[in-house]
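Protein modeling request. Please complete all fields; requests missing the sequence field cannot be processed.
Requester role: graduate student
Desired output: 3D structure, token encoding
Chains: 1
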Amino acid sequence: MKRIVFLFLIVIGISGLAKAQQNKMPTPDEVAKKNVEDLDKRLKLNDTQKSVVYRFTYNQAKEQADLIKRQQAGNSREEDVDKFYKLQNETSKSIRNVLKGEQQTEYDKIIEERLSGKAAKTSKKKKKGEEEEVEGDIKGLLSGPKPEKQNQ
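Delivered output (152 residues):
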């Protein structure tokens, strides 16, 4: 009896680990809602702008999800990469056209931050004994110190 219970617990544990390791892609709806929330925080969108931005970002996320699935299945083509970025650019232009005055200026800053990677920057406190991570741009990668060779 103890063996059966033990085997049952092992099976449950293994299945739990397998589910935890699956990469679940967010749905286009989740992506669009998150984008609208993020933009609303910075741009103070009205209800009409929110619905239009949601529609644009939902369509972009849906088409890009299809492209990602095709790429994961091994059926992607070189022009799919171009289409992926073209969708981003078109959506960005469409959203910008919906915005007014200062919102457009702030939106341009948001796009610039996303492209430079500053949007993902988080302030983490340094733990004792750890070095502070320094972030730089691509130029920093090219002109930075040469990596040390590891002894094998």
